[in-house]
Amino acid sequence: MEARSFVLRGVLAGAVAGLVAWLFSLVFAEPQIDAAIAYEEGRGEAEATLATAAGSPPAGGAEEEIVSRGVQATLGIGVGMVGIGVALGLLFAVAYTLLHGRVALRPRVLALVVAGAGFLTIYATPFVKYPASPPAVGSDETISDRTALYLVMVVGSLVFLAAAVAVTRLVRERLGLWNAVLVGGVVYVALSAILMTVLPGLGELTINVVENGPRASETPLPLRDAAGTIIYPGFDADVLYDFRLASFTAQLLLWGVLGLVFGGLVERRLARGESSDRTPEVTAA
Amino acid sequence: MTTAGAVARARATAIPASQTLPWLISALFVGLVLYYFIGIDEGAVSVFGDTSYIHEFVHDARHFLGFPCH
Fold it and tell me: Does a structural domain hold residue A129?
C-alpha cells in the first residue's frame, strides 16, 4: 500500500468519526451550551442593572449576532466536528504511514495505538491544564493568551510523547518491552507535570488578577453589589461538569472511531490485495 | 495469532520515503490548515481580516472541542 491509500482512508475514517461526534454533540453538548448562554445573558443584564444603579452608563450593549443560534447549534457544530475529524484523520494518516511496517503490530492494532497517542497528546493532556469550557466561562480579553497557552500544551505534549518513545527504545534492550514502556510512561507524565506547573492558570493571567484577584480559573464568580450581597449566582458547577464530561467523551469517540474505521479499512485493503492479485506490483507496493 | 493477523502483518511492509513524501507533506499541510480554521482563526489571530464569520459559525464546535473561545 502506498501513502495515497493511507491518506484517503484517513480522510474517510476522520469524516465518519466527525459525523459520530456531531450526533453525540447534538444530544450532549447543545443543552449545556444553551444553559451557558442563558447564564451569560442573565449575567449581562444583572451587570447592566448594577452599573446603572452605581450611576455609570451600562458598558457595551448586546453582542451583534453574526450567525444565528439555530445555525450554530446544528450546521455550525456539524461542520466543525466533521471538519476537525477530517483534519485529525489527515494528521493521523501521516503518523500512521511513517510507522506502518516499521513496528511489529498488525494494522488495526497500530491504528488504535496511533489514535490513542493522538487523543492523549492533542486533547487529553492539554485538557488536564486547560479544560474545555462552555460559553460564559472565559474572558474576551484573554483569548490571545488562552490560545497561546493551549497551543503550548498541545505542542509540548507531542514533544513529550516523542521523548518518551525515544527513552523507551533506548532502555528496551536492558529492561524488556514491558518495563521500557512503563519508563516511557513515567517520562511522559513527569515532563507534562513540569510544563503544567510552569504555565499559569487562566485565573492567574494579569487581566484576571486585576479584576478578581488571583484564582485558578476564569469560571464566573457570583456577582455582588456594593454591600457584598450576591445579586447573580456564580456559574452552575453541574453545567460545567456535564459540558466537560461530554467534551471528553466526544473526543474519545472521535479518536476511537477514527482508529477503528481506519484500521478496518487498511486490513480489508491488504486482505483484498492478498487474495485477488498476486502480481509482483503488489509486493513492491 | 490468527492466520489473517499473520497475513496482515506480513503485508505491512514499510514504504520508502521518496514516493510517500509529497502525500505526507500535503496531508500534514491540509490537516494543519483545517485544524487552524476550525480551532483558532478569528479568535486570537485572523487570516481574512477582522470578520468573525468562521469563528461564529463553528462557535459551538470550538467550545466543545476544547479550543479557547470567548
Answer: no
- Asked whether residue A128 is assigned to any structural domain, the reply reads no
Q: Could you say which residues from 259 to 278 on chain A have a Cβ atom under 8 Å away from some Cβ of chain B?
A: 267, 270-271, 273-274
In chain A, residues with a C-beta closer than 8 Å to the C-beta of B50 are none
Enumerate helices (H) and strands (E) in chain B, giving the number of each.
4, 0
Residues A108 and A166 in one domain: no
Amino acid identity at A239 = V
Residues A172-197: pLDDT tens digits?
999 999 999 999 999 999 999 999 99
Task: Choose one of A218, A251, A275: the last residue of a domain.
Answer: A218
The C-alpha cell of A120 is what? 492523549
Cα–Cα distance measured from residue A33 to residue A136, given in angstroms and rounded to the nearest whole number: 9
Report whether pLDDT(B1) > 70.
no
Whether residues B68 and A274 touch (CB distance < 8 A) is answered with no
Q: Domain range holding A254? A: 3-123+224-284
* Residue B64 to residue A150, Cβ atoms within 8 A: no
From chain A residues 182-241, the ones with a CB under 8 A of any chain B CB are none
CB contact (8 A) between residue B11 and residue A146:
no
Residue with cell 479544560: A131
Contacts of B8 in chain A (CB under 8 A): 106-108, 267, 270-271
Q: With bands split at pLDDT 50, 70 and 90, how would you rate the model's confidence at A58?
A: low
Complex prediction ipTM:
0.90
- The reply to whether B46 touches chain A by the CB within 8 Å rule is no
Nearest alpha-carbon partner for B33 in A255, A214, A88, A92 = A88
> Which chain A residues are Cβ-neighbours of B62 within 8 angstroms?
80
**Burial (CB count within 10 angstroms: exposed 0-12, middle 13-18, buried 19+), residue A88:** buried
Which grid coordinates are listed for A94? 501521516
In chain A, the number of structural domains is 2
Does A164 lie in the same domain as A49?
no
Q: Percentage of chain A with pLDDT > 70?
A: 94
pLDDT of residue B58: 92
The enclosing H or E element of A98 equals helix A77-99
